Amino acid sequence: MYRIFLLCSSIFFLAFGKTTSAQKKLKEISQTIMKTPHEQNPNATATYEETINWYQQLAASHKELTMVERGETDVGKPLHLAILSSDQDTNPTSIRNKGKRILLVNNAIHPGEPCGVDASMLLIRDLLSQPKKKKMLDNVVIVFIPIYNIGGALYRNSHTRANQNGPESYGFRGNIRHLDLNRDFIKCDSRNAMAFSEIFQEWNPDVFIDNHTSNGADYQYTMTMIATQHNKLGGALGKYLDTKMMPQFYKAMAKEDWEMCPYVYAKETPDDGIMGFLDLPRYSTGYSTLFHTIGFVPEAHMLKPYKDRVAATYKFMEVNIELLNSEEGVAIQKMKQEAAEASKTQQKFEINWELDPEQPSTFLFKGFEPGYKKSEVTGLDRLYYDRSKPYEKNIPVLNNYKAKTVVNKPAAYIIPQAWKEVIARLEINKVTMQQLQKDQVLEVETYYVLSEETSSKPYEGHYIHSNVQVDRRTEKVQFYKGDYKIIMNQTRNRYIVETLEPEAPDSFFAWGFFDSILQQKEHFSAYVFEDRAAEILKENPTLMRELAKKRATDKDFAESGYEQLHFIYLNSPHYEQTHRRYPVYRLNN
User: Fold this and answer.
1) Does the pTM of the predicted model rise above 0.90?
2) Which of 20, 113, 259, 431 is positioned for an S-S bond with 254, CB 3.0–4.6 A?
3) Contact assessment for residue 365 and residue 394, using Cβ atoms and an 8 Å cutoff
4) Separation of alpha carbons 547 and 533, rounded Å
5) What is d(CA 53, CA 475) in angstroms, rounded to the nearest whole number?
6) Under CATH, which architecture does the 2-25+41-342 domain have?
7) What's the number of CA atoms in the CB half-sphere (13 Å) around residue 557?
8) For residues 360 and 353, what is the distance between their CA atoms, to the nearest angstrom?
9) For residue 7, is pLDDT > 70?
């Protein structure tokens, strides 16, 4: 009813251009409609339907806000984008040509952590309606994803976040496929992640915010922050983030009475110190790092009142917009562009990281005294935080990582067309590829997977591999017309390396996309192979000596006829040469 009235009234005003009682009524209705569910009840968060309807109504009355659908989600509903642009330009290329910066905000990746949903609604309305705030859009275009995990948002309940103080009801962490979407960015199992990759590549934001709520220790802060790991971001951009941008944010938030601290990632209690979070590409900010975008995960503290968590999230986004709208935003954009260009010719890439204990710092932390007392449930000692005993003291912070695996970039990678799942993910991330025009044999560097550790239980739908060891060889390999060649002269080189190098912790190999190569296809029957094995040993005295040595040093091996035959088989021409050969090849010329 209201929407019909709004439309009819707008047509009337355009036709006659006069102020009428109907116009006044429209203003009153607009003000009523634009009040969010959270404002009406500070311990409530908007449902999926309320959120999308609210955005659509706001867009209908403000030309600076554009609502579009971009891709499907696993639950079958489209993913929405709300584009806030002061001059109504919604073309990313055109926006960049004007020198404007782009901020991408993601909400409800975990719908049980909905602070960003309500804070974004309030922020957008205020940016559109308050002249002072509207000036913050002079040099910034903001792209909001109102609700990312729609399937999880539709699973509305009041119980699954057992450690959280409100809101009254909320969504569920997993999506409709029971996937944690903040582990899905690099592997893209969900349609949500596929759609996000398209959005991210189209908009290529200067800064990315993924709004969350924390779990863990108790302390005085309402807001904590995970920033892109600055060592991984690297270069001038990483240094700027660590030494200038983050300190500015801490100062700005404190000035607005929302003092915050780094995300409390601690072994036991924060008193013992906290560590920087290593955001692998499975996570949102680890994914954004691959494309030289600074990422933030604001983590509002789960035990603070919901209205305070929303207000702190609102202020964190506002501080980001103010910075991007200033000359600092110009500098960020310039450093991002320079980093992307430099990656085209970068020769060495770090793909594995470890915490560096040699570079500690300190943070003046405001916490509560931890202690232990008898549990009423178990009768054993339990941890608790005494809110009647606040403290302020310096605690150690380890927020530096060092590379432990570095690879040289090849001239190109070649991927046989058979691996269509991998090809699809490269395509959606705008990796430039060429298809071979004819069958041909090429000399390439190959990897053979010597060993890997595989999780005993599935993790996000995969038995993930880690601690991968490879043997490097140079071989001539047959390729076919239609196979893909990726020349390594792209701004996406980092994404390419970290997904295609098998030793990288979030590579496509680590996630099991190439698992079929790990299974041997041809075998032998012992009684048949016995005679052939004897012939092989006579023909190969070196192998005979190696067999004798292994018998002498390995009792179990010496007592197993099958293992001895298998040893000979593995060292014979009968063993399949492609077993454990990684099917992504490095062309070094």
Assistant:
1) yes
2) 259
3) yes
4) 12
5) 59
6) 3-Layer(aba) Sandwich (3.40)
7) 14
8) 16
9) no
| CB burial of residue 549 (10 Å; 0-12, 13-18, 19+) | exposed
**Separation CA 342–CA 345 (nearest Å):** 6
Residue owning tokens 């009423």: 376
Select from 182, 210, 165, 107 the least CA-distant residue to 309: 165
Listed residue (258, 257, 260, 309) closest to 42, CA to CA:
309
Helices (DSSP H) in 241-289: which residue ranges?
A: 246-255, 284-289
Q: SS3 for 467?
A: strand
Domain boundaries, the chain: 2-25+41-342, 409-517, 526-570
- Locate tokens 């190439």: which residue? 514
CA nearest to 403, candidates 259, 544, 278: 278
- Mean pLDDT score, 285-298: 98
438: how many CB neighbours lie within 10 A of its CB?
8
Task: Kindly state the tokens that stand for 15.
Answer: 């036709």
Instruction: State pLDDT tens for residues 528-556.
Output: 999 999 999 999 999 999 999 999 999 99
pLDDT band at 24 (very low <50, low <70, confident <90, very high): low
Q: How confident is the model over 201-258, as pLDDT tens digits?
A: 999 999 999 999 998 999 999 999 999 999 999 999 999 999 999 999 999 999 999 9
Mean pLDDT, rounded, of the chain: 94
